[in-house]
Structure formats: structure tokens, C-alpha cells
Amino acid sequence: VQLVESGGGLVQPGGSLRLSCAGSGFTFSSYVMSWYRQAPGKERELVAYISTTDGRTNYADSVKGRFIISRDNAKNTVYLQMNSLKPEDTAVYYCRRNGIIVYWGQGTQVTVSS
């Protein structure tokens, strides 16, 4: 199993970024996928998750209305569209495959700063 995130970077407050997470080594469409983040000195927290095929989603209150999680099972990829970014969104963002055995990606840094 491998999860590879991409799309992080430096963005100004109010800007947007789209993160991608490509999965391999498992049947992607069979697993709930999640995005987590960890800011310096803080615990890792759930940002959003998306169900397998019906597209049901759930978001942390801190990102509701600004972030959108989606998936393309044909491409084995889950996305996180982040809009109206704030400095407090600065963190390393991780993709996670849910299930009995949990797998994590290596993380991608998102920095929101002017």
C-alpha cells in the first residue's frame, strides 16, 4: 500500500490550493479516505473524510464551507480543495486510508502566510 500526497506549498491568506493523494497497492474504491493535518506543537486532527462510492463527506468545523474533499476512483486519487485559506490552516497535511489497518501518506506542507 502506498499513498503519495502532492500539491502543498506557500499561499497567501485568502488563496487556494488543491491537494492530491494517489493510492496504490489496494482496491481504492473499497476504502473510506481521509485528510488529516498536524500543525507545529499540535496533535494531528481530522480535516475531512469521504465514503467509498456514494460520495458522503464530513468536515471539521474549522474547515466547513472552505474545504471540499472529493475522490476519483478511476484514478485512485482523493483530493482536498482548500479555499479561503487562513494562517491557522498552516500544517502538514496527510492522506489516510481508513480500515482495520490504517495507512498514512508521507504528508505535504501547506503554509499560509503573507
- H and E order: EEEEEEEEEEE
Proportion of strand residues: over 45%
Largest sheet: 7 strands, mixed
User: Radius of gyration from the CA trace?
Assistant: 13 Å
The tally of helices reads 0
Structural class by secondary-structure content:
mainly beta
Mean pLDDT across all residues, rounded?
Answer: 97
What does this structure look like?
- This protein has strands spanning 2-6, 9-11, 17-24, 33-38, 45-50, 57-59, 67-72, 77-82, 91-97, 103-104, 108-112.
- The chain starts with a strand and ends with a strand.
- Helices cover 0% and strands 50% of the residues.
- It contains no helices and eleven strands.
- With 114 residues, it is mostly beta strands.
- Strands 2, 4, 5, 6, 9, 10 and 11 form a seven-stranded mixed β-sheet that branches. A four-stranded antiparallel β-sheet has the order 1-3-8-7, with no helix packed on it.
- The relative contact order is 0.32.
Task: List its traits.
single chain, mainly beta, 114 residues, globular, 7-stranded mixed beta sheet
